[in-house]
Description:
The protein has 65 residues and is mainly alpha-helical. The chain has a domain at 2-40. Helix content is 66%, strand content 0%.
Amino acid sequence: MVAMAAQVVLFLIGAARRSYAALAIPIALMVTFLSVLGFWVGWTLASMEDDLTGLEFEAEPLDEN
């Protein structure tokens, strides 16, 4: 919690000084995090093995009464 409070204080000081880095660094970190998350999800989906053997069943005829 102390680290988060320090981060907010440093961000506000940088924003008050109109520092480009105060906005660029957090945005770059968020973009990096989202890119890594997207790559991880894509890799997981691409490398999954299809295991559909438990989904086989015989279709029951519809009762049209």
